[in-house]
Amino acid sequence: MADQDETYIVGPLYKARDKVYPAAVHGRFRRIKWTILCITLGIYYLLPFVRWDRGPGMPNQAVLVDFPHRRFYFFFIELWPQEVYYFTGLLIIAAVALFLMNAVAGRLWCGYLCPQTVWTDLFYAVERWVEGDRRERILSDKRGWTFTHIRQVALKHFLWIMIGWWTGGAWVLYFDDAPTLVKDLATFQAPFTAYLWIGILTATTYVFAGHAREQVCIYMCPWPRIQAALTDEWALNVTYKGDRGEPRMSVKKADAARLQGEPAGDCVDCHQCINVCPTGVDIRHGIQLGCIQCSLCIDACDSVMTQIGRPTGLIGYDTDINVQRRREGKPEIYRIIRPRTIIYASFIAIVGGIMLYSLATRGTMGINVLHERNPLFVQLSDGGVRNDYTVRLLNKRGARDFVLDVVGLPNAKVTVAGETREQDGRMMIDVGQDQTREIRMSIEAKDDNIPPAPVDIEIRITDPATGTSVSKHDHFVPPTR
């Protein structure tokens, strides 16, 4: 039981959000981020309009998810629903690639490639263009709702909504012919689901990139917690080099301290690394959950170091091992290539190689055979025996005829229910473009040709134009003797 004199400190369960006002920054990493932003958003917004000729009667959109015909097209690749394992392979590669990036340089994905980072960067750029940089935005918020501030905020939110609207519009273009769907959307003739998804993605983009921002990275995204368990001491991370920067003091005080032989660090406590951070993190406190490692603090610090005539690199990519080695006066070492990265890279190469080989060697036709189980065989009045099968033929190209053969039971009679024809004594089955066809096939063995036990048979289809064939094995089952 607690002592009656014991006091308890009661505080809030949740910390209120501190609004972040990131300042504009110029430098190498900012240029890299702008380049990645332009490339990734350019691909996302423009890719639906890229054309790819697949021949007559085929869609000519380079990337298309065709739900009505159950196809996925990616340039020269065409995937069917039963080939979903390719998507499984891509998901595996994506996951291991995240592990590899984390092993090499921490949160590379978060800082440069994550959609939340890319769109938030774009929204911040719009905000600066409309309302000004960090100081102007802070002053505007302090002054309150003046006419100028209202006009700027209204324009900013309008542009944000337009970006969100086009983000949702670009998404639905991947599911239908883009030029046609754009016309239908403009004339209000598009399906309701298209408008619904545009509305949903407009809202989510506007909320996540315009309002939630760093809250998504800190509270909603699971990856920061996962990657923290996967990282090791050799991974490069954006790091403040405290052994060089501490103790912090102004330029004049540092010069005076050095003249007197006292320790003085290179950090002048200018707070520029905090001011440019999109999540409001002070990198000098070490690696934190909120740090997405976008490297903008490196550009800000390097700019200050250049202005005061001190070496750059006070904040930079570094490892926990090197932090400790510098404290001990040892030289820095880097090991990007190590067992962990080799394993990840090898796994990606193996899975990718298997997928490429499978794509390169897969056929454009297929066959599946299902033996009738009830009954396994039918005894005919003339003494013969019949087995029935359900055969499904798959055609991944234009309309064509397949030759149907049965191998393994000599002198057997093969019949197919429905529309079939014969050519040069061979049974021809026509299958439409990008279609499957299910047929009912019967195999009869005469009384003098009934095998004494079940025999293995091969049911084969051949494309007479190319000579390509595929087959499935099954059994012909006779009566028990």
Automatic annotation (TrEMBL):
Kindly give the Gene3D superfamilies that the UniProt entry links to this protein.
Immunoglobulins
4Fe-4S ferredoxin-type domain mapped to chain residues: 257-286
Specify the superkingdom. Answer: Bacteria
Q: What is this protein called?
A: Nitrogen fixation protein FixG (Homologous to rdxB), with 4Fe-4S ferredoxin, iron-sulfur binding domain
Q: Which keywords accompany this UniProt record?
A: 4Fe-4S, Electron transport, Iron, Iron-sulfur, Membrane, Metal-binding, Transmembrane, Transmembrane helix, Transport
Record's GO cellular component, any one? plasma membrane
Q: Which Pfam families match?
A: Fer4_18, Fer4_5, FixG_C
Q: Name one GO molecular function term.
A: metal ion binding
